[in-house]
Amino acid sequence: MKTSHRLGGVMAAIPLAIGVLCGPAAASSHREAPFITTVPKVDATDFYLFRSYETGRSDYVTLLANYQPLQDAYGGPNYFSMDPNALYEIHIDNNGDAKEDLSFQFRFKNTLANGGAGVSLNIGGKSVGIPLIQAGAVANVKDGNLQLAETFTLDVVRGDRRGGTVQPVTNAANGSASFDKPVDNIGNKTIADYAGYAAKHVYGVNIPGCAMPGRVFVGQRQDPFAVNLGTIFDLVNAPVAVITDSALIGAAPNTIGDKNVTTLALEVHRSCLTRGDDVIGGWTTASLRQARVLDGKPSSGHQTSEKAGGPWVQVSRLGMPLVNEVVIGLKDKDKFNASKPAGDAQFADYVTHPTLPALLEVALGAPGIAPKNFPRTDLVTTFLTGIKGVNQPTSVTPSEMLRLNTAIPPVAFAQQNRLGIVGNLLAGGSDNAGFPNGRRPKDDVVDISLVAVMGGLCMANGANDALGFGAACNPSAVPLGATSFKLHDAVDQAVVPLLAGFPYLNTPIPGSR
């Protein structure tokens, strides 16, 4: 059965609901849990899921999984290669049972040139290996001046991620199951045209079980997210007069505007992702081997000093933005990263009785401003099931993931409203493809979140319970009232540079110009 996508007045409140759970900080999961800070190569930062808005690609869905947060462009000489002992995955639930039906698995391999011997120079009659990744200017795939080659494989798993049917995704041009990843943006002298160089690493692919070819790209990108990061985590160290003035949405600089991330980008025809229902759910994970032993005497030419073995252990999980960072309690952050959506009932108290509004009372020195509508049934409905008639599957098991109604058409970038569906409705436009119907890079989920965390959803829901949240969602229980609609973090997501087409995220910041 297909899920309808009615978009009447009820939609005015929808983007606010998911935002409540994201809280008033970034919508990126940078360093969100104690253990993940020790293994940044598998730290997921953002997940985007949206109908492709590139010209001629509107029947495709784009999935972007970002890893390795806060990369400084000058971070040489080794830069930010992916972990060859890790498993990176994007999961799709297409029947609402909170279990993966499709998983796209990325594995990486790092090898030195010349069969592991690397690149050497004749120094005083001796052949000595150079210390840099590059031996000269780089412009092409498999460039001869690259000492380090990074490649990856991509498999599609149907059914359980560990027990299902595994098949390789292959290059549509030559049938290869191995793909080259571009080296990071070392600087303009090494790579004069990084945009052109990276574009050579966008591959058309054949996906087993899918009649339509897709595309894949893995490589460094400019961090697409905008946020007043340090200020927010410093107990919201900003004047209330600024963050409640809608004219000042761009008053502060983007804290992470000069940072890069590593993106796993995949474009798949929507018919390959759905199964009798237009709504799909998605989330990302990263896993490491259970046993990781340091090699006290690593061999020359090897790109790792550890020996890994045993079953995969999940150490990162990301669906909705910022859930683990500012919703899950500190004591359960590692537990959440190791969990699966089907087990999300164990975290229900963090949703029905969120602590963030009370923390904002302390941070802003304004006691009594937190909503009092407990339990937060508005959050449970939107966060764990999706909104009925919008992005809720026909049958659904409550669980946390990013949900996309693939029947709602995309909107060209220039016409996209940065506040997603709620902004579109306020503007009287026709953009119904934004957050929380999936998430696009332009969607300003931070500002939506700030409004929602202080009860904006219940204000929009109204006394007539338009969204069906029950008596607990009562506007009279929202002390801030209409003021909640004016909240923002003073950083404008809409001005972040992005590309018009796949992989959508901007060319990474170079190490030197």
Give the N-to-C terminal Cα separation.
54 Å
Radius of gyration: 23 Å
Mean pLDDT: 88
Shape: globular
Number of domains: 1
> Structural class from helices and strands?
alpha+beta
How much helix, percentage-wise, in residues? 10-25%
pLDDT < 50 runs, ≥5 residues: 1-27
Q: Report the total helices.
A: 12
Kindly report the oligomeric state of this protein.
single chain
Report on the structure:
With 513 residues, this protein is of the alpha+beta class. The relative contact order is 0.22. It has twelve helices and 16 strands. A hairpin with an 8-residue loop joins strand 1 and strand 2 (60-72). Strands 3, 4, 7, 8, 10, 14, 15 and 16 form an eight-stranded antiparallel sheet that branches. The chain starts with 13 loop residues before the first helix and ends in a 52-residue tail after the last helix. The chain has one domain (9-111, 222-495).
